[in-house]
Amino acid sequence: MKSAAFAYHSPQTLEAAVSLLGTLEDEGVDVKILAGGQSLTPMLALRVARPEALIDLGRIKALDYIREEGKVIAIGAMTSKHAAGVSELIKARQRLFHDATQLVGHRQIRNRGSVGGSFAHADPASEYPAVALVLDMEFKAVGPEGERLIPAEEFFVTYMTTSLETNEILTEVRMPTLPVGAGWAIREEARRHGDLALAGVCLTLQKSGAVISEAKIAAFGVNPTAVRLEAAEAALQGQAPTAENFARAAAAGAAALEEPMSCIHASSEYRRALVRALTERCLAEAAARAV
Ligand SMILES: Cc1cc2nc3c(=O)[nH]c(=O)nc-3n(C[C@H](O)[C@H](O)[C@H](O)COP(=O)(O)OP(=O)(O)OC[C@H]3O[C@@H](n4cnc5c(N)ncnc54)[C@H](O)[C@@H]3O)c2cc1C
After folding, report:
1. Whose Cα sits closest to atom 50 in ligand 1?
2. Rounded to the nearest whole angstrom, what is the distance from the C-alpha of residue 126 to the centroid of ligand 1?
3. How far apart are CA 274 and CA 219, in angstroms?
4. Of 97, 107, 139, 164, which is most buried, counting CB atoms within 10 Å of its CB?
5. Whose CA is nearest to atom 9 of ligand 1?
6. Ligand 1 neighbours (beta carbon < 6 A)
7. What sections of the chain are H helices per DSSP?
8. Order of strands, edge to edge, in the sheet holding 146-151?
9. What are phi and psi of 87, to 5 degrees?
10. What is the main EC category here (predicted)?
11. Gap between the Cα atoms of 51 and 60, Å rounded
């Protein structure tokens, strides 16, 4: 199928894009932001999305950057996932996000797809929203009212829905660097390499002496949004990093999940079992990395 007709706008500055978006919204035009197009163009072609106008951010070079600001890494929304995946800064200072990026789609998709687009698209099976919850990322949005910062736990609302207003553009993703000595891990199960995950888990783990001082764990691909596994986190607090404790925590986290999604590729129970197994393996991996 071909997409339905739409007006195409390609502003060169963020200010022009925000102004145009506000004007079109006020006029009642159904408008969509186009970033890398890796998710939106198939939706247009299948007519799942039928906007009357597209605002392409592709020419706004000011939204393409990766920089360190104190203990935060700031990534411009139009930075490609490839650029994020090969960034030495991210590899050295935020290894969980680096590793997550290697799991996103294929090289071609990472070349075209933007970092901001993945967060704004909010696919429940995407690695990035789960990483955002674990790392307490923040999202910078700009609209006619100005700029605001949205914490990760308020950003992802439900299935492919964020708290961005229709007249707002996501401009920057802000992630704290991994604390020195923290362990990390991300694992997923997909039908083929490069597919979106059937289920996945990511986490960070910090030790204090012989015990775990903090574990932050999230699962993706199981509920309408990525979810923190708070029961698993609580079960690990102050405990020794042993295989027995990891198994107990993983079981608690999986058991506390709200009914996981079910589809022809993976039943609800299979997804729950995946979360349990992947959590256990991630904990062992992260504990071995933590110092
Ligand atoms: C075969 C295949 C495999 C894939 N596998 C994975 C995978 O394993 N993991 C994964 O996470 N993703 C995967 N993807 C999706 C891919 O990562 C997309 O690049 C990503 O979801 C969207 O980024 P984009 O820049 O292409 O955004 P687009 O497709 O251009 O836009 C996606 C949505 O976000 C909105 N949007 C984009 N940017 C902004 C912004 N700055 N402000 C406000 N709204 C915005 C758009 O309006 C649209 O609704 C896969 C895609 C394909 C085709």
Report:
1. 105
2. 9
3. 10
4. 97
5. 104
6. 32-40, 57, 77, 104-105, 109, 113-114, 116-118, 120-121, 123, 126-128, 164, 169-170, 194, 196
7. 14-26, 40-45, 81-86, 88-93, 95-102, 107-112, 115-121, 127-135, 152-155, 230-236, 243-255, 268-289
8. 66-69, 72-76, 169-176, 138-143, 146-151
9. -65, 125
10. oxidoreductase
11. 21
Domains, the chain, in order of start with CATH, read: 7-56 (3.30.43.10), 62-176 (3.30.465.10), 183-289 (3.30.390.50)
Distance 28 CA to ligand 1 centre (A): 25
**What is the position in ligand 1's atom list of the atom closest to the CA of 34?**
30
**Rg for the chain, CA atoms, rounded:** 19
Closest ligand 1 atom to Cα of 39: 29
- How far away, in angstroms, is 112 Cα from ligand 1 center? 9
| Shortest-distance Cα residue to atom 53 of ligand 1 | 38
Query: Which tokens is 131 given?
Result: 């990483």
- Per-residue pLDDT tens digits of the chain, which is 291 residues long: 789 999 999 999 999 999 999 999 999 999 999 999 999 999 999 999 999 999 999 999 999 999 999 999 999 999 999 999 999 999 999 999 999 999 999 999 999 999 999 999 999 999 999 999 999 999 999 999 999 999 999 999 999 999 999 999 999 999 999 999 999 999 999 999 889 999 999 999 999 999 999 999 999 999 999 999 999 999 999 999 999 999 999 999 999 999 999 999 999 999 999 999 999 999 999 999 999
Cα separation values, 289 from 95, 164, 181, Å: 11, 36, 8
